[in-house]
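TICKET #2291
ISSUE: user wants both folds in one file
ATTACHMENT 1:
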Amino acid sequence: MIDNNYKFWLAGFVEGEGSLTISIIDHDKATHGILLQPEFNVSQHLNGLSILESFKTLFNGKGQIHKKSGSKNVWVFTLKGINNLNDYIIPFFMEFVVRYSSKYKNKEFEKFVFILRKLKENSSPPTAGGSNVLPSTLLNKVEIKKSKFKKDEFIDLIKLIYTLNPDGKGKKRKRSLSEILSIIEDKNSKN
C-alpha cells in the first residue's frame, strides 16, 4: 500500500517529468477518420525504474513501462484510455498534483479534463442489451471508433487538443492541424 506522503513524492515526478496528452491517430475505420487516444506518461532515467514501478502499483497494475524511443537510458510509464485516465489519473492529479501546480498548468489540466469528459460522453462502445460486451481493457482501445460526435463538434475538439501545452518541451505533433482537418473532411466526404 502506498501512503499519501509517497503519493505526494510521486506527484513531484509527475510535475517535473510527466505529461497528459491526446494522441491523434489516422484510422480508416474511425467515424471521422481519426482516433483520439488520451494518455498519461512519466519518464525516468534507468536509475529511477523503481519509481515507474511505483506508478504501476499505484494504478492497480494498469499501464506499461517501456524504453523511451531514441534513448537507451530513459524509461517511460504510460497509461492510456479514457476509462483508465478517468478512474486513476484524474483523481490522482486532483488530489496530489493540481493544487500545487502553477496557474498555467492548472489551465492545461482543465482543458485536458474537458476533452476527456467530451470523449467519454460521446463514445459509443459496442453493446448488447445495454451492457458493454468488451472488458474495459479492450474498451479503452475501441470506444472512439464508434464516435457519436458530429463533424463540427469533432473538429472543435481537435482544435482544442492542438492548443494543449503549446510551449511543451516534448515532441511535436506529426501532423499539422490542417492535415488532420483534411483527413476529417476526406472521411466525411466519403460517407
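ATTACHMENT 2:
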Amino acid sequence: MAKPDPNALHRLIYRSRPTLAAMADLDLVVSEIRTASIDRNRAEGITGLLLLVNLHFIGALEGKYIDVRNTYARISLDRRHRDLCILSQGTAGQPVFSGWNMCASAIAPADEVIIKALRTKADFDPQELTAASALRLLTTVAAIQQRASQAPDVAAVPRQPPHEADHEMAAFEID
C-alpha cells in the first residue's frame, strides 16, 4: 500500500453508536461534541460533519492525513462512541465540508424535511450505509442546513411551499 501524501486532502467517513451512558442525554452529548470539536478542528485544519440519526453517529473528517487520523484516533477513544466503523478513507480531490469546522447535528423535529425523507425510507439502517451513501447523506444534510442558516427567521415567515430540500432528500438513495 502506498504511503499517503501528507499534504493532500484526506477524507475519512465513519459510523459509530452512542454508548448507553451517552444515550441518557443525546442532545447534551451532541452539543458537547460540537463545542469541543469546533476549536480543535479549526486549529488542526480539520473540517467535517457529524450527524446523529437512528441512534447512530455518521461522520466525515477532512484535512491533512495525519490530522484526520489523529482526530479519528481521539474519536475512537471517546467514551461516548462505540462500535466504530470506517466506511471509507483516502485522498479526496475536492473538499466537501470546507465551510464546516464541525457541524454536529442530531436530527431534530425542526429538521422536518430530513426526518420526513428518512421516515419514508422504511429500510433506512445506518449500519447498511455504504461509503457513497453516507457521503451523499452528509452532503445533503450539510446543504440543507447551510441554506436554512441563511434563510430569514422562520418564526417571522408564514409557512412556505415545499422547499427544494424536500426534493433533495426525497431523491436521496441508499445503496
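RESOLUTION: both attachments delivered.
EXTRA DETAIL ON ATTACHMENT 2: Helices lie at 20-23, 26-44, 65-77, 112-120, 131-150, 164-171.
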